[in-house]
Amino acid sequence: MTSPCIFGIVVTVSEKEGKYLQQHVPDSRLRNVFRWLQPGLGVKRWILFLMLSTTLIGLGLAYLLLDVYRANPDSTVIAFLSLRALPRWLRAFLLIVAGTGGVVLSFLQLNRTLLAPFVRPGKSIIDTVSAHRRRGRGPKIVAIGGGTGLSTLLRGLKGYTSNLTAIVTVADDGGSSGRLRRSLGLPPPGDIRSCLAALSNDEDLLTQLFMYRFREGEELNGHSFGNLLIAALSGVTGSFDTGVLEAGRLLGIQGRVVPSTLTDVTLIAEKSPAPHSPRVKVNGESRIPTTPGRIRRISLEPDHPNAYPGAIQTILNADMVVIGPGSLFTSLLPNLLVPDLAEAVRATRAFRVFVCNVATQRGETDGFDCPAHYRALVDHVGEGLVDLVVANENVEIDLPNGVSVVQTPADGGIMVPVYTVDLVDQVRPWRHDTAKLAAALIALLEERTGPLELGGDDPFNGTDNL
Q1: How many helices (H) and strands (E) does the chain have?
Q2: Which of 117, 149, 184 lies at the terminal end of a domain, its last residue?
């Protein structure tokens, strides 16, 4: 509950009273005025300071006008302007009302003018400010992975907190990313580009721009515009990580996107074409899924790359670390094969969760169930990496040929607790649903830490622009 002194009146607004005002104050503009008084916006103190400052200016002007009034007691103009014909109390009341109305109108119009460029269509200024403040106080969450799975997770979590950090693999060597990597010597920007777009505040427009792929031109054909932009910013700023940071600022993202390492690494897999056949070594992330056989082992070359320092710092300071979802062998494990990064995950006090995929992936996890996903993680990185496994429980779904649902047996030999919930995207059932996954993870975090201050709809939920 809060009791600010605004316009000389003590106003007390709690969350419960705010909901009452929403239901019983019919005028949306008046309702939005009351919403500026709700806790947590950091606005009331400055309104109070504005009123005190205005009062001081008024007192100074009053001293000057009083001298003029006393020096010309018989002036009809002064008598009219000072409302001499009315009682003193009525004059004071009318002046206070007029002044208060003018300050309120000026305050609202000034906010509309200054904040209009930052407010999305259909959203009010108070909605935007309130959600921004709450997300800024949200939990610190680190998501580790790459590809479509990590983007799906980020799209859901950005509605709860802006303290997000995506740690992205840099082992990609195919497509536009591979071409830029070979020609410019840069880490592959493809997965980073997808995460930047997912964290953008204006994803509808920026996803189209950032994900746009050129279809013509000998040199541009196949390149993604977002990859070229990151490469250009890297050249302008002098380093890849700074270029990614500037790309994030340019897009106005909520959170950060960082590489797991800046070392030029190559992903190597050992695959068995048949159950008892010799292992075949496959070099390059893009070749691994297309080479026949079962993956037995993956590694990085060089095998001990240095972790990106910013990634280590965010993991150690996090409230929650989420590994997955995503391609197990080509998106998740390449990050954890960076030794210092894996040790940071093991050492952090954060709540550590492994999100198992909804469906198997051709060429990588054919025939895998949830325990097989977890065992692959343990076989490559060791025990003690996660506190909980989150898995999908909805197995009644139709999937494309060659893809099967990842089952979660009741007793699968997983050494950590397993939490199952329906996570299926109804449109693309082989993927996680963005909202379901984010809601499940936040609920699990709140069970561990207690209620969190999160983004989302506030109790007034107005939609009219001020």
Answers
A1: 17, 12
A2: 117
**179 Cβ partners below 8 Å, 6+ apart?**
222, 223
Give the CA distances from residue 209 to residues 194, 196, 227, 340, 459, in Å, rounded to whole numbers and listed in that order.
11, 12, 11, 35, 35
Q: Are strands 294-301 and 266-272 parallel, antiparallel or unpaired?
A: antiparallel
Token representation of residue 347: 């050492």
Residues 69 and 162 occupy one common structural domain: no
Q: What is the dihedral of CA 141, 143, 149, 155, to 10 degrees?
A: 30
Q: Residue 378 has which token pair? A: 């343990």
Is 38 in a helix, a strand, or coil?
A: coil
- Is residue 124 assigned to a domain? no
> Is residue 465 in some structural domain?
no
Task: Kindly list the distances between the CA atom of residue 246 and the CA atoms of 224, 231, 240, 249, 256, in Å, as whole numbers in the listed order.
Answer: 18, 11, 10, 5, 10
> Coil, strand or helix: which one is 388?
strand
- Cα–Cα dist 115/36, whole Å: 14
Strand partners, 224: 213
The beta strand positions in 273-315, using DSSP E, are 280-283, 294-301
- Domain count for the chain, please give it: 2
CATH of the domain at 265: 3.40.50.10680
Residues 56-75, buried b or exposed e (16+ Cβ, 10 A)? eeeeeeeeeeeeebeeeeee
Does the structure show a pLDDT above 70 at 25?
no
- pLDDT tens, position by position, 82-91: 777 788 788 7
CB 438 within 8 A of CB 156: yes
User: Can you give the residue range of the structural domain that contains 58?
Assistant: 5-117
Dihedral sign from CA coordinates of 196, 199, 202, 204: positive
The pLDDT tens digits for 114-160 are 666 555 555 565 555 556 566 667 899 999 998 889 999 999 999 89
Q: Give Cβ neighbours of residue 122 (< 8 Å, ≥ 6 apart).
A: 463
217: Cα within 13 Å, side-chain hemisphere? 9
Q: Terminus-to-terminus CA distance in the chain, angstroms?
A: 24
DSSP 8-state code for residue 259? E
